[in-house]
Amino acid sequence: MPNLKSAKKRMRQNVVRHDRNIQVRTRIKSARRSMMEALEAKDAEAGQTALRTYSSVLDKAAKAGVIKKNTAVRRKTNAANGLRKIG
Q: What is the mean pLDDT of residues 64-79?
């Protein structure tokens, strides 16, 4: 347990950030899952919608610092390439 006032505050902040990061990562996984389901079903229209949602979620996560910018770019590129293969 921290003894200093600033350390106690930092600990509270870390808990809040941890919870927020988990929510964002869950949102990423859900969007990825819907994207993969559309790709497996070879549904280009649903895939297009899922890709748009997935890209938005990744961009927001990168902006918040939950994932790195290049990670978001790489994942969006891979998803777009998968969609291009079925389209």
A: 97
pTM of the model: 0.89
Task: Provide mean pLDDT across the span 7-27.
Answer: 97
Q: Over 2-49, what HEC string results?
A: CCCHHHHHHHHHHHHHHHHHHHHHHHHHHHHHHHHHHHHCCCHHHHHH
* Domains in the chain: ranges and CATH: 5-86 (1.20.58.110)
The token pair that represents 70 in the structure block: 């290049």
Q: Burial-class residue 1 by CB neighbours within 10 Å (0-12, 13-18, 19+).
A: exposed
Torsion-angle region of 42 (φ positive above 0: left; ψ -120 to 50: alpha; else: beta): left
Q: What percent of the chain has pLDDT over 90?
A: 97
